[in-house]
Amino acid sequence: MTTPMIIPIAAAQETAADTHEVTLTKQKEMVAYICFVVAVVGMILQSVIGDAGYAITGLAVAGLLVFGVMDFNEIRNAISAPKPSSSRAGADTSCPSTVCPP
């Protein structure tokens, strides 16, 4: 049995942070903030307005798409669960009995 390669979390975060470049204009940044606030308000008011809270949150995400803050692939990848990669397909998912509940 081969042991998986372990990368420290701090090192992985530093690598990801080093390659990230912000390319939003000031207008797109303001649209992102407004959409975020609208989505949060929709989630908070859901107990009062019902399913319309979900619609408000969805419209906020649609605003991100319409104004070009995020493209469709970024939104889809943020909403959907990632598919397992081919290298992990069939990987042993069992864990030691000391870690996993019975």
General description of the model:
- The chain has 102 residues and is mainly alpha-helical.
- It has a domain at 24-77.
- The chain is built from five helices and no strands.
Key words describing this protein structure:
102 residues; mainly alpha; 5 helices; 56% helix; 0% strand
State Rg: 20 Å
Low-confidence stretches: none
Shape: extended
Strand content: under 5%
Q: What level of helicity do the residues show? A: 55-70%
Q: Calculate the terminal CA-CA distance, rounded to whole Å.
A: 23 Å
How many helix segments?
5
Main sheet properties: none
pLDDT averaged residue by residue: 77
Give the total of beta strands. 0
Q: What letter string, H or E per element, gives the SSE order?
A: HHHHH
User: What would you call the structural class?
Assistant: mainly alpha
Give the SSE map.
Elements (H helix, E strand, L loop, with lengths): L8 H11 L6 H19 L1 H4 L2 H15 L5 H8 L23
Provide a short characterization of the protein structure.
This protein is mainly alpha-helical and 102 residues long. The chain contains 5 helices and no strands. 4% of the residues are buried.
